């Protein structure tokens, strides 16, 4: 599954929850065959954020702009919750990235934040780019894999056609609708504990997993729908843009910003 650049929301380092989750994740990793990759506790707000990675200067500008806007959006949410992120029961799926994870409550503010980020930095730039390809095909070419990419900016000649300008208002409106549908039907906030290809998790392993979760986090029941009574969650935290390509151990943090 292509993830591209993802926006993560992490608990702050050196907090009790961050340390507990990190220790738990390290312990659970030892229960799975091979050497499952290591990663820090986080929930993914969205994947496939549009950043121009081909040009380092532009990429740095994009990262700063997106993180700044994301922090403003997060800090602008109504303060009508104790925790923006509330962990729920532990679960497993066949998928590598959801092998073992905590559900996260769909707090309306969290869902709204994800919808905003998806609209502004995934759907809208992608849709505008697709329209630009239609309107200005001379600005694009194909790479060796057949993908449409922008031509490198060479010295402009007098005879080069001027790029066509087009109205983006309808594209923006459509992006809003797409983001709303995505946040309602597809967004599935969760906190992964282990990435693995093992399937299924047998009963003996499940019992060991649940015992460790309950012991490390000092909770009575990791099957309860929400663990809010145990204080398992956080507000604010750290926003990170992470390039999630290739081996998980090779993922790169492009930038981060603290939010309160």
UniProtKB/TrEMBL annotation:
Region (Disordered), start-end ranges: 138-167
Example of a GO MF term: 2',3'-cyclic-nucleotide 3'-phosphodiesterase activity
Chain segments annotated as transmembrane: none
InterPro entries in alphabetical order: Cyclic-nucl_3Pdiesterase, Cyclic_Pdiesterase
One BP term from GO: cyclic nucleotide metabolic process
Matching Pfam families: CPDase
This enzyme's EC code(s): 3.1.4.37
Family affiliation: Belongs to the 2H phosphoesterase superfamily. CPD1 family.
Role played: Involved in the metabolism of ADP-ribose 1',2'-cyclic phosphate which is produced as a consequence of tRNA splicing.
Protein name as annotated: 2',3'-cyclic-nucleotide 3'-phosphodiesterase
Originating species: Suhomyces tanzawaensis NRRL Y-17324
